[in-house]
């Protein structure tokens, strides 16, 4: 049976490993996780850290066009309603 760890726990352990003030063996004893698992979590954290910043930027860029499009839809709908009333 495999143990499931929470995301918060994995992040905490990976951050502790990134500090490099203790060995993997020490962290393993402290957190009850194998050194290999800690090493995998650390590598995953380091390789995906860039997403923290690029993810926000990408999300921001996706929101801007949709806001512009909704504004355009609203403007066109109002224009269409005016044209219907005037004819």
From TrEMBL:
| MF term (GO), any | DNA binding
The family database entries (InterPro entries) matched by this protein are listed as: Homeodomain-like_sf (IPR009057), Transposase_8 (IPR002514), WH-like_DNA-bd_sf (IPR036388)
Coiled-coil region(s): none
Question: Which Gene3D superfamilies does this entry report, sorted A to Z?
Answer: Winged helix-like DNA-binding domain superfamily/Winged helix DNA-binding domain
Biological process (GO) annotations? DNA transposition
The name this protein goes by in its record: Transposase
**What is the species of this protein?**
bioreactor metagenome
Q: Provide the organism lineage as a comma list.
A: unclassified sequences, metagenomes, ecological metagenomes
